[in-house]
Amino acid sequence: MKSKVIILGAGFGGLELATLLSEALGEDAGVIVIDKSDSFVFGYNRIDVVFGKTTLDEVRLPYDNFDKPGVRILRETITAIDPDTRRVTTQSGVYEADFLVIALGADYDLAATPGLAEHGNEFYSNAGATRLRDIFPSFSGGSIIVGICGFPYKCPPGPSECALTLHHYLTERDIRDACDITFVSPLSTPMPASAEMAQALMDSFEDFGIRLLRQRTVVRLDQGLATLDDGTELPFELFLGVPKHTAPQVVIDSGLTENSWVPIDLATLETRCSDVFAIGDIAATGLPKSGTFAESAALSVSTAILERLEGRKAERNTGTGTCIVEYGDGRVSYAELDFLTGESLKAIYHPPSIAGKAFKNGFDDTRRERWFNLQTAAR
Ligand SMILES: Cc1cc2nc3c(=O)[nH]c(=O)nc-3n(C[C@H](O)[C@H](O)[C@H](O)COP(=O)(O)OP(=O)(O)OC[C@H]3O[C@@H](n4cnc5c(N)ncnc54)[C@H](O)[C@@H]3O)c2cc1C
Question: Atom 29 (ligand 1): residue with closest C-alpha?
C-alpha cells in the first residue's frame, strides 16, 4: 500500500506530527500512523501508578479516540524498515510512502544491567510501574535505591520526581523513619539544563534526607546489593530503577542507528536517507529525551514535508521543550528550555508551586483534547 506519509510510532512525536499534517492538509493528508499498542500513556502517569494514585486503566488514552481527517492509525507491529525504499513491513502488510518518519521512541535494555530483572524493579514501563504498585503496600521499611542504569534516558528529572514522591508517600504512610532513600544518577546534577532547577532539587533532597550520589551509574544487582560503576556496593531492600535505554531492535536492524540512536541533521531531523526523518527519543539530537522536544521536532518535520509537497516554508528544529517536575506534595516546578534558536541554551525556570501544578494539568488537558478529543479531566 502506498501513502504520502508513514509515521512509525504513535507517541508524543508521532501523534503531534499526524495532528499537524491533518490540520494542514485535511482529508488529503494521506497519513498512516503505525503503532503496536492500542493506547498512549503519558510517561509521568507511571509514577502516579507506582504510588497508587491511579491505575494504568485510568490513564490509558485509546488510539480509537484519535480521529483526524486524512490520518489512519494501524495497530500493527513493525518488523522491518527499509529506509532506502521507504518501505515498512509489519506482521500484517507492507507499506510504502513518499515520506517516512521514524518516531519509535526508546526501548529498555534490562539485560544490560545484570540482575536488574531478577533482583530489582524498574518504573519506566507500564508493566514495571504496575508491578511496583502491587509491591509497595506490603513494604514496611528498609533501604530504597532510586537508581539510573545508563545515559541517555527519558525525562532527565523523572527519577528525581520518583525519589521526591517516594519520600512523601513513605511519610504519609508513617514509615519514612524506617526507610532510607539513596538516589544514584550518572549526571553531574539532577537537571543539567537548568542550574536553578537542579539546585532546588538538591536542596529538597537535603531537606527530605535523600542521599544523592552523582556521576555514578548502577551496573549490577545481586540479591539486596547494587554495584555502581566506581565499585561502590549499596545494600537495599527495594530497588527502583531506570533501565539502560536503546533504540528498538527494528530500527537497529534497519541500519539507521549509530551507537544506539539515529543520526540526523539537527536542523531538519532528516536522516542520511532523503525524505526519511527521525523525531523524538530515537533521534541522536543530544537534547533531552522528552515528549515536548519530540513535539517541537514534529513541528519542524511537518513544515519540511509541507515545503516539499506544497512549497510552503520549512522551519528549522527549535530544540525547545518544557521539563516538568512533580515534587510529590502537590507542588510542581518547570523549566522552559530553548537549545537551538540562539547562540546558547536559554532556560526559564519556574520554582515549585501549587500554580505549577495547574500548569502541568493544562499541559495534560491540552494534549488529551488535541490528540484524543477528550474534554478537560475533572481535577
Ligand atoms: C516516568 C517518565 C516521566 C516522564 N515525564 C515526562 C514529562 O513530564 N514531560 C515530557 O515531555 N516527557 C516526559 N517523559 C518522556 C516522554 O514520555 C518521552 O520522551 C516521549 O514519550 C518520547 O516520544 P516519542 O514520540 O519519541 O516516543 P514514544 O512516546 O515512546 O512513542 C513510541 C511509540 O512507538 C511504538 N513502537 C515501538 N516499537 C514499535 C514497533 N516495533 N512496532 C510498532 N510500534 C512500535 C510504541 O508502542 C510507542 O507508542 C517521561 C517519561 C517517563 C518514562
Answer: 11
Q: Residue 44: CB within 6 Å of ligand 1?
A: yes
Condensed to tens digits (0 to 9), the pLDDT of residues 323-362 reads: 999 999 999 999 999 999 999 999 999 999 999 999 999 9
Q: Which helix (H) or strand (E) holds 196?
A: helix 195-207
Ligand 1 atom showing the smallest separation from residue 289 Cα: 19
Q: Evaluate if pTM is beyond 0.85.
A: yes
Mean pLDDT of 53-71: 97
Q: Is the pLDDT of residue 1 over 80?
A: no
Q: Atom of ligand 1 at shortest distance to CA of 76? A: 43
Segment holding 88, helix H or strand E: strand 87-90
The cell numbers describing 165, all together, are 514522591
C-alpha to C-alpha distance for 170 and 179, rounded to whole angstroms = 8
Q: Is residue 378 very low, low, confident or very high in pLDDT (cuts 50, 70, 90)? A: low
**Top-level CATH class of 2-106+247-314?**
alpha beta
End-to-end CA distance of the chain: 44
Between strands 121-122 and 39-40, the pairing is unpaired
Residues carrying CATH 3.50.50.60, the chain: 2-106+247-314, 108-245
What mean pLDDT, rounded, does the chain reach?
97
Please indicate whether residue 288, judged by its CB atom, sits closer than 6 Å to ligand 1: no
HSE of 361, CA atoms in CB hemisphere, 13 A: 13
pLDDT above 70 for 376: yes
* Dist. CA 359 → ligand 1 center (Å): 21
Q: Is 61 in the pocket of ligand 1 (CB under 6 A)?
A: no
Residue 288 CA: which ligand 1 atom is closest?
19
| 231 CB-contact burial (10 Å; exposed 0-12 / middle 13-18 / buried 19+) | exposed
Residue 21, helix vs strand vs coil: helix
* The CATH fold of domain 108-245: FAD/NAD(P)-binding domain (3.50.50)
**Chain segment 218-243, per-residue pLDDT in tens:** 999 999 999 999 999 999 999 999 99
- Enumerate long-range contacts of 338-346, CB under 8 Å, 24 or more apart: 339/193, 339/287, 340/266, 340/267, 340/316, 345/193
Does the structure show a pLDDT above 70 at 174?
yes
- With a 6 Å cutoff on the Cβ, whether 158 touches ligand 1 is yes
